[in-house]
Design brief:
The structure holds 3 protein chains of 3 kinds. By secondary structure, chain A is mainly alpha-helical. Helix content of chain A is 67%, strand content 4%. The longest helix of chain A is centred in the middle third of the chain and has 32 residues. Chain A is globular and about 85 Å long. By secondary structure, chain B is α/β, with parallel strands linked by helices. Chain B has 2 domains: 211 residues, D-Maltodextrin-Binding Protein, domain 2, CATH 3.40.190; 174 residues, Periplasmic binding protein-like II (D-Maltodextrin-Binding Protein, domain 2, 3-Layer(aba) Sandwich). Chain B is 46% helix and 13% strand. Chain B is globular. Chain C is mainly α. Chain C has 2 domains: 51 residues, no CATH class; 236 residues, MetI-like (MetI-like fold), CATH 1.10.3720.10. In chain C, helix 5 packs across helix 9. The chains are: A mainly alpha, B alpha/beta, C mainly alpha. At the A-C interface, helix 1, helix 6, helix 7, helix 8 and helix 9 of A face helix 1, helix 3, helix 5, helix 6 and helix 7 of C.
């Protein structure tokens, strides 16, 4: 935009707009900042009134998040000095650490299922997107619409038969079952987005390669894939974020072995009632990767969340 | 699927005839709710591990998710749990849907007699159909809904004088539901030690079973009945009787005039929080929490005392507690039965009580020293003498959720009248039993 | 589509040689590439959908395997459509949909319009604003529950800081009047950036020369706004509404964590109600019929809407 353009907003209006937007951004950040702060509070500070902005930071929430503890008698505590700094923290409550909590496992499940389903959706999605982009497929538009429409069902509605099916196949509460399910949900997004990216790659590149004696397969992975790398990467992050955040299927179809973090975090309890600092610590650890990805992804954000319907 | 279930049960029964004394070491998983008694059970089970060579794993699920998660697990034929300490209301479904192994033959061959356990607990936790000698669980944890209060506040001369002036009688443990409300209203909004405190914390939770468990604690003392004649499913005039309406209105008044603000969706955890943070003078909760409350460094010890749910037209307490069952889908049923055999042992039961679990074994309960063994032991015996439970039908979840909705709509969301809420409940329940083919 | 160079080349070569060069025919490759995706979607989306339709005509209960399900015709549908409680759930859903979309459109458009001024640092602040919508709704809902606590929560504290009064004088999640708004607030907080981004794309798609021409014609700024900006952004805005509409019709995780449907049934959106029927009461047949009704509703509404959207685009 040229500086002399008559449509260029005046300095005053820019200043005004900037102030309002920054104000909105700051207000919208308060809850997130509060989550992160609460993670470093002691349980007493977390529930104090008026809410404390200044407090003595402690890692108690994080210790409670990652460990299980039991209360012990004074004699026991005196006979067994604390093992490490984490143990020392829980001693304030006459407790000792007896082992790790389930959080690590649940987090790992989120990672396995997230990356597993992302890999599979991208793998299958790239193939399908390439085929839709380059070949004449009978009823292509209908098929594409069908792929998209599967996203319209409320997850709870789909979950009923999936629950029955998984029960019969022994896929309930397995990593494989969740990976397949998330792949099925994500693949519609993957195909639509990737088709858009591949459409943008000029056909002439492949055609030249074919003339040079490449097979279709070779042309596909030696010419098209490298060109589509950025598109594939951003699609992958979208798939990953979806699988990472998903709650409804996870809460219905998993329990002890394959449960991911979202259904687990709200159930972290301390001694009577929710242990808010531990919940906040869990939320912080869980949300941070997504925030980082969002910042990396900001250029492709719109395309991803609108199924490629809006490009810029 | 059906045939598979049958086969599993058959296999279980066949095995149970000769429980091997020296079985191979197994990895057993026991599922229960995540709460104080569960930690006690871990402690107790160490002895079993040492004796049998089996390893015990535990899967403890927070109460708000417990029913959801476990019923989902059973309904999906999951092999996660070998042993399940399931809520009393699940017994009908557990038995009829083949989730639980029938234990009669096992009890006979091992000489375990149900006569050794308190009759109310056997009836509630073990039998299906109700009251018949068909056992699907061994009573593991007796429990009922009771009350605790700030003994130090009740003993404070200033507070006592203020109460006497306001209500014309001495401040003491309530002898009726109406006295209970009166005391709670007296404390509501009072300044104590420079802090505003409230009357009592009661159950109002919507999602699982909270408000139903709280309201039945008022319904039963008023003489509420589920059916006009037991087993008839004839509910019109029983569920929505004049007494039931009065009890429900009472609970709503209690909620509106004597509970702390913001407790619109509160159950066990919130009740404990409210009490431990010094917000309330009294609170209702399950006896299971009482050992932990008594041991609490801030509000326990000589600051706390306990009382049984007060009577109104009659004595009545809401039953909690669980029996321990062997899950039919488990592949380690022999070892699981071994655990039950060990757990039924009177010495183990005595230790169970001493660690904070509520044994239902007669040898523990009838012991002359029992009443004095804890400040709430006598109350526990009294409560267990007049307990009632919710429907234990296989369709219990539908019945419970209908009640949750109707009660929360009326008490917390303030919609309609008590009579209308109960009338609608009768309609909902009738529909459920019609679907079941029982009406 | 014009014949590609490759095809021309293929035609020029004898068939047998062509096949050798390429390994497989294009047609075979197309099917090999598409088949796994279609198969997966058939297995995990279409087959279940058909099964759901079939179940919806029975009284099947997934927790009663030893009871034979009976075919009961349209009875489930009849019961659902005549159940006044379900209509209340629909109303709660409609309230939620209407207000979240209205607020998000208004605030989202306003923000986009401001950001479009291209002030210094606008890219950075846009990224900051966008953060909430990428987060896990269940975790966010859980944490907002903490913010909404009447005695200790930050939300009540901030509100009463400005309005005065006791922080515990109102209960966002516990009061029948406020709870429906509590979920609207959180959803608006989370998803306004989405509408904002789409509006921003719309604003940026308007070429400068249109405004320049309007300036030459001495059209007022206000007039430009209503005759150029709004009509040009409208298709984008409608797209945003479509996406938000479909998503919020499916809303489950955020609200379950916030209110669980309470108090009473005031925030029991259809998805929450459906979950209770299907996975707590285990009325599988009934819940299947319910699911089909919801699916048909959202699909029907979306199709009508897309037609309207296309008309606007054509103009």
């Amino acid at each position: 935009m040229s500086a002399y353009s008559i449509t260029e907003p005046s300095g005053r209006s820019k200043w005004f707009a900037g102030t309002l937007v920054i104000l909105y951004a700051l207000i919208t950040m308060i809850p997130l900042a509060w989550i992160m702060l609460t993670g470093f509070k002691s349980p007493a500070d977390a529930i104090s009134y008026p809410p404390k902005v200044l407090f003595e930071p402690t890692l108690e929430g994080y210790v409670n998040l990652f460990t299980t503890r039991t209360r012990q008698t004074q004699e026991f505590l005196e006979a067994n000095p604390p093992q490490n700094w984490a143990d020392e923290i829980v001693r304030d409550y006459d407790m000792v650490i007896v082992g790790p909590s389930k959080f690590g496992e649940r987090f790992l499940n989120s990672v396995i299922i997230g990356f597993g389903s992302t890999f599979l959706s991208i793998f299958l999605g790239t193939l399908a997107a390439y085929a839709f982009s380059r070949f004449k497929i009978p009823l292509a538009d209908d098929l594409l619409f069908f792929i998209l429409s599967t996203r319209m069902m409320p997850p709870i509605a789909v979950a009923i038969p999936i629950f029955l099916m998984y029960r019969n196949l022994g896929l309930s509460d397995t990593h494989l079952g969740m990976i397949l399910l998330y792949t099925a949900v994500n693949i519609s997004l993957a195909v639509w987005l990737l088709k858009g990216f591949i459409d943008e790659i000029p056909r002439e590149y492949e055609e030249a390669a074919l003339i040079d004696g490449y097979t279709r397969f070779q042309a596909f992975y030696k010419v098209v894939l490298p060109q589509a790398a950025t598109g594939i990467a951003s699609t992958a992050i979208f798939c990953l974020i979806f699988a990472w955040n998903e709650y409804a299927f996870a809460v219905l179809l998993t329990s002890a072995t394959a449960q991911t973090a979202p259904p687990f975090i709200p159930t972290i309890i301390g001694v009577g009632g929710l242990d808010w600092p531990a919940v906040a610590a869990g939320a912080t650890i869980f949300l941070l990767p997504v925030m980082i990805f969002t910042i990396l992804l900001r250029k492709h954000l719109l395309r991803g969340i609108t199924f490629g319907a809006v490009r810029k | 699927m059906k045939r598979f279930n049958g086969a599993a049960i058959g296999a279980a029964l066949a095995c149970s005839v000769s429980v091997p004394t020296l079985a191979a070491a197994d990895d057993l998983t026991l599922c229960w709710a995540a709460w104080d008694p569960a930690n006690a059970l871990v402690e107790l089970s160490k002895e079993f591990e040492a004796q049998s060579g089996h390893t015990m794993n535990f899967e403890f699920i927070p109460w708000p998710n417990f029913a959801d998660r476990m019923l989902n697990e059973l309904n999906s034929g999951g092999k996660l749990c070998d042993l399940l300490i399931g809520d009393s209301q699940w017994i009908g479904g557990g038995a009829e849907n083949g989730h639980y192994v029938k234990l009669n033959d096992f009890f006979d061959s091992e000489g375990i007699s149900m006569d050794d356990f308190a009759p109310a607990t056997v009836y509630a936790y073990s039998t299906w159909p109700k009251g018949t000698p068909n056992y699907y669980a061994l009573p593991a944890m007796g429990d009922a809904n009771g009350w605790f209060y700030r003994k130090d506040w009740f003993a404070d001369p200033e507070i006592q004088a203020a109460f006497k002036e306001a209500k014309g009688r001495d401040l003491a443990e309530p002898k009726s539901q109406k006295e209970l409300l009166e005391i709670a209203q007296f404390f509501q909004g009072r300044e104590i030690d420079g802090k505003t405190v409230y009357g009592a914390s009661i159950f109002t939770e919507r999602g699982s079973e909270g408000i139903t468990m709280g309201i039945t604690s008022a319904l039963y003392p008023w003489g509420f009945k589920y059916e006009n004649t037991p087993g008839s499913y004839d509910m019109e005039g029983a569920v929505n009787s004049a007494e039931a309406v009065e009890a429900l209105e009472f609970y709503k008044e209690f909620y509106e005039t004597a509970t702390p603000p913001g407790y619109t969706n509160s159950y066990m955890g919130e009740s404990l929080d409210a009490f431990k943070s010094g917000q309330v003078a009294m609170a209702m909760n399950w006896f299971a929490f009482f050992p932990g409350l008594y041991a609490d460094p801030n509000t326990g010890g000589d600051k706390i005392d306990f009382f049984v749910n007060p009577p109104q037209n009659q004595a009545g307490s809401t039953l909690g507690g669980q029996g321990i069952s062997v899950v039919a889908y488990s592949e380690k049923q022999d070892a699981a039965l071994e655990y039950i055999k060990w757990f039924a042992n009177p010495e183990v039961q005595a230790k169970w009580w001493s660690l904070g679990g509520y044994s239902a074994h007669n040898s523990v309960l009838n012991d002359p020293g029992f009443v004095d063994s804890a400040p709430f032991a006598g109350d526990f015996l009294e409560a267990m003498g007049a307990v009632q439970d919710f429907w234990q039908e296989p369709a219990y979840a539908e019945l419970l959720l209908a009640m949750q909705k109707r009660m929360h709509d009326y008490v917390v969301a303030d919609q309609g009248t008590a009579k209308e809420a109960l009338d609608k409940l009768v309609e909902d329940w009738t529909e459920v039993f019609e679907d079941e083919g029982k009406l | 589509m014009t014949d590609s160079l490759a095809n021309q080349a293929a035609q020029a070569t004898p068939p047998r040689v062509a096949r050798k060069i390429r390994g497989f025919s294009d047609r075979a490759i197309a099917w090999i590439f598409v088949a796994p995706t279609i198969f997966l979607l058939l297995a995990i989306n279409i087959f279940p959908l058909i099964w759901t339709i079939q179940l919806s005509f029975t009284n099947f209960k997934a927790n009663r395997l030893n009871r034979e399900p009976e075919f009961i015709g349209l009875r489930n549908y009849e019961r659902i459509l005549t159940d006044s409680d379900i209509w209340l759930n629909m109303q709660a859903t409609a309230h939620f949909l209407f207000w979240t979309i209205t607020l998000q459109v208004l605030i989202g458009f306003a923000l986009a319009w401001l950001i479009h001024r291209n002030f210094k640092g606008s890219n950075f602040w846009t990224t900051v604003i966008v953060l909430p919508m990428m987060l896990s709704p269940a975790v966010v809902g859980n944490f907002w529950k903490f913010l909404y606590q009447p005695q200790i929560g930050l939300f009540n504290y901030i509100v009463t800081f400005f309005t005065g009064g006791e922080a515990s004088s109102f209960e966002m999640l516990g009061s029948v009047n406020l709870a429906p708004w509590s979920i609207v607030i959180v959803d608006t907080w989370m998803w306004t950036p989405f509408v904002m981004l789409i509006c921003l794309a719309g604003l940026r798609s308007i070429p400068d020369y249109i405004y320049e021409a309007a300036e030459v014609d001495r059209a007022s700024k206000l007039r430009q706004f209503f005759t150029i900006t709004i009509p040009m952004v409208l298709p984008f805005l409608m797209l945003a509404v479509l996406f938000r509409g479909i998503e919020n019709f499916k809303m489950f995780d955020l609200v379950v964590q916030l209110t669980g449907g309470g108090p009473g049934s005031t925030t029991e959106l259809t998805s929450i109600n459906l979950k209770r029927e299907a996975f707590e009461k285990w009325r599988t047949g009934y819940a299947s019929a319910y699911a089909i009704i919801l699916f048909v509703t959202v699909f029907g509404l979306a199709s009508i809407y897309v037609k309207a959207l296309n008309k606007v685009k054509e103009r």
